[in-house]
Every structure is written in C-alpha cells, then in structure tokens.
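Task 17 of the worksheet. Students: predict the tertiary structure of the chain below and write it out as structure tokens. Keep your answer in the requested format; marks are given for formatting as well as content.
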Amino acid sequence: MNIAKRLQGLDWKAIEQALWNMGYAKTPAVLTADECEELISLYADQTRFRRRIDMERHRFGVGEYQYFAEPLPALVQGLRLSTYPPLATIANGWMEALRQPQRYPADLPSFLARCQEHGQTKPTPLLLRYEIGGYNCLHQDLYGEIAFPLQLTCFLSRREIDYTGGEFLVVEQRPRAQSRGEAIATEQGEIIIFATRDRPAAGARGYHRLQMRHGVSRIRSGQRYALGIIFHNAT
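Model answer:
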C-alpha cells in the first residue's frame, strides 16, 4: 500500500479532535521499518541536502539536522502532499475560530505558490540526528512571513533499541498560568502532528491563542533519527 493510501486510512476525526484539544496528535505507525531505514541512509548523501545545521553552534541544542534539496525524496514528497489537504481543513477551522482572515488553499502546490510570492522558495523538510547527550531546545519552526499552522515529525529510529531517552516535548504557554508540558514516547514509523506556533483554545469569551513550542529531551544512549515535515518554505 502506498503512502497516500496509508495516510487516507488514518482516523482523521480523532486526529482533528486531538489537535483541537491538545495541539498535537500521534498516529499509529505509518512508515514501514524499511522506509525508515531508507530515509536514515540518506543522511550521509550530501547531494540530497541543501544545508546542514550544527545545533550546538547556534545554541539550538546538541545535534544536527539537514534540509532536503529539491527534488525531495519521493516518500518525503508523498508525505507532504498527502497530509496537507486534511490539515488545511483543520487549519482553516482554527483561523475561523480565532476570527482571523487567513485561509489556506486546499492543496499543497497552491500553498507553495503563495510562499513563492513572498520570497519563500527553499524546501523545509529535514532529517534530524541526535547522539548521546543530544537534545533540541523548545522552539517554533518559522521561516518567513508565511507559516502553515501545523507540521509533523516522523520517527525513524527504534526506541529502547537504537536509542534511549529522546522523548518528543510539547509545551503550551497558557495566559495567566504556568506553562504545561508533555513528554511523548514514540515508536518507529509513528507520526506526531502538532501546532507550529499556536492553537485555538476555548475560553469564556470565545477562542483565544495558546502559544506552542516543541523540542526533544536528552538522548541517554544510541542515535535517534527523525524526519520533519514543514509545509511552508523558507526564504
């Protein structure tokens, strides 16, 4: 079964409800073990990437990641194309709840054309690698004026076999209250879909924004690889 059919088979109603309630949703394993290994093997091929980032140098954490160059690998492109439409529907619902004028096109090429109009032409899907002691500070992935409200991370390594530690972190900043965080253990092939910058939350006077940040806890042993799918391009 190809990646588009696997993604269509997910429980998108449950995903949408989780995103509204918590700002993130975790899927069952979508990628096969072979697909995960194939993506990991690309990391050493510098011809597939446009830029490498040493996280420690930039004080982003400890580890490194590389942005894919065009053309994107077929699996990465398939993930990006197939997850965008249902997430655009959710994103538009968020904008309506927050009484914001933005609306997102129904398909990814149309959205990327909007990015291009604002000078955002560089692809943003990336592979991340962490070794012992590595971690990712809490952050938001914003690359220009245009930003899609949702993104996803696909987990390529086997927890407790390839690595230990390295939980996915989500922190929600609540108004007039302390922040709330969650540490999410993930298995190979699973996907977490989460808010890029903020999400709507119901209050006494309607919906308001809750700021969201994400990161990765410290790796205690081994190596951890992940694939990040961000829909807006970079300048």
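Marker's comment: Residues 3-229 form a domain with the Jelly Rolls fold (CATH 2.60.120.620). The longest strand covers residues 206-216.
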